[in-house]
Amino acid sequence: MSPSLRRAPILAQALAASTRPQSPQNTYGYHRVYFRVAPLARYSQRSYYATALTTADLKTVLHPVHLDLGARMVPFGGWDMPVQYSGILAEVKAVRTAAGLFDVSHMGRLYISGPQSTQFLDWVLTGSAATLRVGRARYCMICNDSGGVIDDTIFYRLAEDRYLLIPNAGNRAAVVDWFQDWIDQKFSGMPGTDPAISPAVSMADRTESTALIACQGPDAPQIVDSLCGGAASTLRPFAWTEVNLADKPVMIGRTGYTGEDGFEVVCQARDAAVIWRALMDQGALPCGLGARDVLRLEAGLPLHGHEIDEETTPIEAGLNRFVRFDKEYVGSEVLAKQNEEGTDRKLVGLTVEGRSAPRAEYPILHQGEIIGQVTSGSYSPTLDTSIAMGYVLGRHASPGQVVDLDIRGRTVPARIVELPFYTKPK
Fold first, then answer.
1. Between 20 and 30 A from 285 (CA), which of 132, 146, 333, 379?
2. CATH topology classification for 344-426
């Protein structure tokens, strides 16, 4: 098993450089970004999986478009990705008040199929595949034997025995290896059949043969509707459908990683530029990784390698609602015990007055004693204050409690608050 994904130093440096104070309106800091998408439902079911999924300097099919738009590009998870276009502040505002457009093509797309695909996913996921209806999606975690989070994911039920699962960009290799190990050990074939001819579970990686585009914000339904005959706004949250978007066949899901309404689209790679331009023409503003990270932090959404990793369980991260406790699966015994007995540490939200943005790994203190550590932090342009998430000892996790942050040797007071920091207006 590969080690937990940690912060990518090159991207972290690029983000810090891109957000150095330039004026009173531009004092904030960011960290790396992950997001997830809803992909196309129909592909051939040839079983294979990639063995070199993190090749350096990969480029999405939209890479030339980003360069033409003047995006600032940074290496991230083996991919050359846009960190910002018009500026992080403007991009965050666009998503909160209108609509933003993201290239999320570096995210993984693993198609799981076969007569035992449901049983397989019920074994490796904290969320139930058996109870998920065709046409719906579910968020959950992939845990190791100790309950640590290998990755968080959204998976879609495409048919009775076919699913689509979205791993984070930097974790795709680890997820593929973990899944293949369990397929070989526990789901290699149906009784009386040749696994090479009729496998019980097949896994196909389609990450590099498609593009994935997210349109997020309060104007996203109107924008996407204008290109697909009004089909988008009829979708419920965490539902998907297949439509023609800008006259190109796509799959759209009403999902996202920003805390706003919106859609995530998968299309054939050859159609990506046409769809991107069409969404731009309808008013969606191109946005990069920097804005994505601020948006997900404001919404209190976890980021693998920060709030969750292979040494942190969903229970510690406060994600109990995405964990089932009625059946056995990988890590379930540990998670059930933690859910019943509690954990020593808890994930909390923190607010800090002003724009002294907390950063990951800054110590959290109470009366001079270290009680935890920041996992993510930033200035929030939406709330006009600095916010952070971090782990503290359980006895210090009550909302309203005042603690201190060690920000580069300077002690700054912070208040523990409930998550999320931001909730979209109803």
1. 379
2. Elongation Factor Tu (Ef-tu); domain 3 (2.40.30)
Distance of alpha carbon 253 from alpha carbon 11, whole angstroms: 28
How high is the pLDDT of residue 188? 87
pTM of the model: 0.86
Residue owning tokens 């979708």? 235
pLDDT, position 37: 27
What does the alpha-carbon distance between residue 199 and residue 386 come to, in Å, rounded to a whole number?
52
In this structure, which long-range contacts are made by residues 329-332, counting pairs with CB atoms below 8 Å and at least 24 apart in sequence? 329/122, 329/123, 329/124, 329/125, 329/126, 330/123, 330/124, 330/143, 330/144, 330/145, 330/182, 331/126, 331/143, 331/144, 331/145, 331/146, 331/147, 331/148, 332/126
**Predicted confidence (pLDDT) per residue in 9-24, tens digit:** 334 444 444 443 333 2
pLDDT digits (tens, 9 = 90+) for 346-364: 999 999 987 788 999 999 9
**Calculated CA dihedral for residues 165, 225, 293, 80, nearest 10 degrees:** 70
Range with the poorest average pLDDT among 34-43, 170-179, 373-382, 383-392: 34-43
Q: Is 247 exposed, middle or buried (0-12, 13-18, 19+ CB in 10 A)?
A: exposed
d(CA 80, CA 233): 32
Q: What stretch(es) of the chain map to CATH 3.30.1360.120?
A: 28-107+207-297
> CA 68 to CA 89: how far, in whole Å?
21
Residue 11 or residue 148, greater confidence = 148
**28-107+207-297: CATH architecture:** 2-Layer Sandwich (3.30)
For the record, the structure tokens of 187 come out as: 């789901």
Q: Are strands 369-380 and 363-366 parallel, antiparallel or unpaired?
A: antiparallel
